[in-house]
Specification:
Elements: H1 29-71, H2 77-103, H3 114-121, H4 129-150, H5 158-180
Helix pairs in contact: 1-2, 1-3, 1-4, 4-5
């Protein structure tokens, strides 16, 4: 269920080891994944922790993006229901990633504040349900590409499988959102990665 209050969340994200993703930064995703991947190959367990924290930052942002959309009053009932389900998926991803980081002996990155997400997501420019769906679509595709990009970078290959599963979830979300927006099917293969 969506939280009804505005959470007071604190935290700092960096591109190396502490993930950020915003609509403005979607184009940088490949670079974030590449930087995390470089650390993963050379950094052993700490590299894996850094990559997982980048992923956790993506999940924190997705959770908040869906929260902002839900609280906007712009989502119609059937779309709001889908947003709630997708947010639940992202909360599950968050919990799994935070658990893996803890198991490795790391410290999970905390979410940013609501104000930081509102600014980085460009929430002030959102005026319609379509705007919210386009934002979610961009975030989902960016996250899928990030998860795919880091698969070969993990020292512990079991995390590669987890990353592939997360990428599949994000790609599924992207496909459903694209369909809801009436976007045509991509004509070329290899849509992600």
């Amino acid at each position: 269920m969506l939280e009804t209050g505005i959470p007071n969340r604190r935290g700092v994200f960096g591109l190396v080891g502490k993930g950020i993703l915003s609509v403005a930064a979607v184009g940088i995703l490949g670079n974030s994944a590449a930087m995390a991947g470089a650390k993963g190959k050379s950094g052993g367990k700490q590299g894996d922790i850094d990559i997982l924290n980048v992923a956790l930052g993506l999940e924190h942002e997705a959770i908040e993006a869906y929260q902002i959309g839900a609280e906007s009053g712009l989502l119609q009932k059937p779309v709001l229901d889908v947003a709630v389900v997708f947010q639940g998926h992202h909360k599950g991803h968050r919990d799994a990633l935070a658990g893996a980081i803890k198991t490795l002996g790391g410290t999970a990155v905390e979410p940013k504040s609501r104000a930081d997400y509102v600014a980085s997501l460009g929430a002030a420019a959102i005026k319609s349900q379509t705007d919210i769906l386009r934002l979610a679509q961009k975030l989902e595709k960016g996250a899928a590409n990030a998860y795919i990009g880091v698969i070969p970078s993990f020292t512990d290959k079991s995390f590669s499988q987890v990353s592939a599963k997360l990428a599949a979830d994000e790609a599924t979300h992207w496909a459903i959102l694209s369909n809801a927006l009436g976007d045509p099917l991509p004509a070329s293969p290899l849509i992600f990665g």
